[in-house]
Q: What sequence folds into this?
């Protein structure tokens, strides 16, 4: 078989189509050279050949082949990253649109709620006069005694329930409007306990799923400097993840949320659940964008990636410790010193020293 025929056979194989082929032949005419390169050879060596020259030519083509493979791998990596970034932009746009819609919907809910509350307040003010008239009718035997008794007993409860309900609606609407509001990145002193309460108000429906909430919040907690809106987002993501981690289990579902000053200049907040836990070999992956173990209709895989990004912007750190079958603990470390000395939320990542709890699985720090 001639060299050009062998080259054709090699190039027909998918696994070898990019492998460089050097043809060695005693033919020196131009037509042979043309055919050699036409069938895919990368070089032409005339017999008899010099061994040193052949080794040099082979070395050059091997290096070029490896460089081409590396370039191809880089191109593929860049393509995948571009696709991931495009998906992130789509999600970011959807989240931005959702925030705008939430603010608009909250406004629309607030208007009729004000009408209901206004009328309930009028009823509350008029009730003593109505009650007096009903009791007079009762004493004189006028009207349906059963209905009068029911009104006297139930109306104060109904008015109080309406007022309480409108208060709750107003509180939720204000929380949604605050959460959706576009704020500057400068931030200011924040009370983490108050930030936590705002986050719990926003996801209170999720937290009602037969889950025991144990709040262990330190009083007089030092302030930290940050964007309260972004920190609310961090805590919502962590609490919702904890709820999802405990779904479907028969044992007690409990979430412990604690805050404390862990050093003179550091404030620590922990969220611990009794969920199924995270496998040790997956702990590093949970921070990756679009990584999720939840069904598509439940999670996007962006939550913890966003959490880490926000924590970095606040020059803070977050640790995770998890044991399968026991649960997971996320610990957030903030510097309280920067609340007095910094004027802006830092863009660079940093670390805040804090005490660490013991666990069967080593902690992974996202900084």
A:
């Amino acid at each position: 078989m001639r060299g050009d025929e062998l080259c054709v056979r090699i190039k027909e194989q998918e696994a070898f189509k990019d492998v460089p082929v050097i043809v060695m032949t005693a033919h020196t005419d131009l037509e042979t050279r043309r055919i050699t390169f036409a069938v895919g050879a990368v070089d032409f060596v005339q017999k008899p050949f010099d061994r040193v020259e052949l080794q040099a030519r082979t070395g050059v083509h091997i290096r070029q082949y490896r460089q081409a493979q590396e370039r191809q791998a880089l191109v593929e990596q860049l393509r995948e990253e571009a696709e991931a970034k495009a998906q992130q932009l789509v999600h970011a746009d959807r989240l931005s649109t959702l925030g705008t819609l939430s603010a608009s919907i909250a406004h629309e809910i607030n208007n009729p709620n004000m009408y209901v509350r206004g009328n309930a307040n009028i009823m509350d003010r008029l009730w003593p006069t109505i009650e007096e008239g009903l009791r007079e009718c009762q004493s004189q035997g006028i009207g349906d005694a059963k209905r009068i008794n029911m009104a006297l007993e139930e109306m104060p409860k109904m008015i109080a329930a309406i007022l309480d309900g409108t208060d709750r609606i107003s509180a939720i609407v204000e929380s949604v409007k605050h959460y959706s509001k576009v704020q500057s990145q400068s931030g200011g002193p924040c009370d983490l306990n108050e930030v936590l309460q705002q986050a719990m108000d926003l996801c209170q429906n999720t937290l009602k799923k037969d889950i025991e909430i144990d709040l262990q919040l330190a009083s007089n907690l030092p302030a930290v400097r940050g964007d309260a809106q972004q920190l609310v987002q961090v805590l919502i993501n962590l609490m919702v993840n904890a709820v999802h981690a405990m779904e479907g289990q028969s044992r007690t579902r409990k979430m412990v949320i604690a805050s404390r000053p862990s050093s003179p200049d550091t404030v620590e907040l922990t969220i611990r659940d009794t969920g199924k836990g995270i496998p040790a070999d997956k702990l590093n992956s949970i921070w990756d964008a679009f990584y999720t173990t939840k069904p598509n209709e439940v999670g996007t895989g962006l939550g913890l990636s966003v959490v880490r990004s926000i924590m970095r912007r606040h020059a803070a750190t977050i640790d995770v410790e998890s044991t399968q079958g026991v649960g997971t603990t996320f610990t957030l470390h903030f510097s309280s010193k920067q609340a007095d000395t910094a004027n802006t939320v830092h863009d660079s990542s940093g670390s805040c020293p804090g005490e660490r709890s013991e666990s069967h699985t080593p902690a992974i720090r996202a900084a």
